[in-house]
Specification:
By secondary structure, this protein is α+β, with helices and mostly antiparallel strands. Among the domains are: about 95-175; about 200-295, no CATH class. It has helices at about 1-20, 95-100, 170-200, 230-235; strands spanning about 110-115, 120-125, 125-130, 135-145, 145-150, 160, 245-250, 255-260, 260-275, 275-290, 290-295. A hairpin with a 2-residue loop joins strand 9 (about 260-275) and strand 10.
Length: about 300
């Protein structure tokens, strides 16, 4: 028991001696007074990163600056063009009107050589023969859009082909366009002669005789059924398109209002010059106060040249 006590005493003394002499400063456990004073630990605090928020500037509209606008130079108004004079040129009806939409082609258009655009079978007493498309034949007549053809001008063989099976339309259209140019020139000469005749006419014309019009101004017929008032109008050159000898029928005078006054209209059936030669048309003369004021085609309403 004593040995244990001495052992503990020796260990304790050794510990105390080590603590007093051997333990480094700051590590002494028993002799703490020998430890240097504890320095306060300085903690470095990092500054908090403050998130910079973008500064939003208030959008204040800038005052509107007056814009200098150049005053447009006022230009003098362009002169108003004078209205173009009404065309005095003739008005021609389309060829479809002259041919009844190709159903009534005048006989004066035949015979003529045409080109086939389809095969044509020609029949005769001893057999038949064919002319293929691209060949030529003679158109002798037309009826309701169907042509009667012959292989030659003197052949007795015949074939029936629709107009569109040949180049007849193209031929007649081309001829009509050329005729209109020639006819327009003729009408210019006629119009010029009419103006000259009117300028050379006496200033005061004699009134109609009793053989031309009655007391009311109505045209009077002669023994042949014609109207001397209208015949003299044609002879004086008031119109040249219609000749007295080309009139085939005189109709009765009918009352009509002309220029707000009571007058008379006399229709005549006559033959006039066309691309197909003389063709039948209808026209009428307007009579006011016993004088012919004008001639007009009843179909188109155009003035007769």
């Amino acid at each position: 028991m004593k040995s244990l006590f001495y052992t503990i005493l020796i260990i304790g003394g050794a510990f105390l001696a080590y603590d007093y002499y051997g333990a480094p400063p700051g590590k002494k456990l028993v002799f703490k007074s020998l430890n240097p004073p504890v320095k306060p630990k300085v903690v470095t605090v990092k500054p908090t990163e403050v998130e910079e928020k973008p500064v939003i500037k208030e959008m204040i509209p800038e005052p509107v600056k007056p814009v200098a606008v150049e005053k447009p130079v006022e230009k003098a108004p362009a002169p108003t063009p004078a209205p173009a004079p009404a065309s005095s040129g003739p008005k021609f009806e389309p060829i479809e009107a002259l041919t009844g939409n190709w159903l009534k082609i005048p006989a004066s258009a035949f015979p003529r050589e045409v080109k086939l655009v389809q095969d044509a079978m020609f029949k005769m007493s001893v057999g038949s023969s064919k002319i293929a498309a691209g060949g030529k034949a003679y158109a002798l007549a037309a009826d309701n859009g169907v042509l009667t053809l012959a292989p030659t001008a003197s052949s007795p063989a015949r074939a029936q082909v629709a107009i569109d099976g040949t180049d007849l339309k193209e031929q007649l259209n081309a001829s009509y366009e050329k005729w209109k140019i020639t006819r327009a020139e003729e009408l210019k000469v006629i119009a010029a002669n009419k103006v000259r005749a009117q300028s050379e006419a006496p200033a005061v014309e004699a009134g109609p005789s009793s053989s031309e019009a009655d007391a009311s101004g109505k045209p009077v017929r002669d023994a042949d059924g014609g109207y001397p008032l209208l015949i003299n109008s044609m002879k004086r050159g008031q119109i040249t398109e219609i000749k007295p000898e080309n009139i085939t029928r005189w109709q009765d005078a009918q009352p009509i209002v002309i220029q707000g006054k009571p007058g008379w209209a006399v229709k005549v059936e006559c033959n006039v010059k066309t691309i197909f030669g003389l063709q039948p048309v209808e026209a009428q003369a307007l009579v006011l106060n016993g004088k012919v004021t004008g001639w007009y085609y009843t179909g188109s309403g155009e003035e007769v040249p």
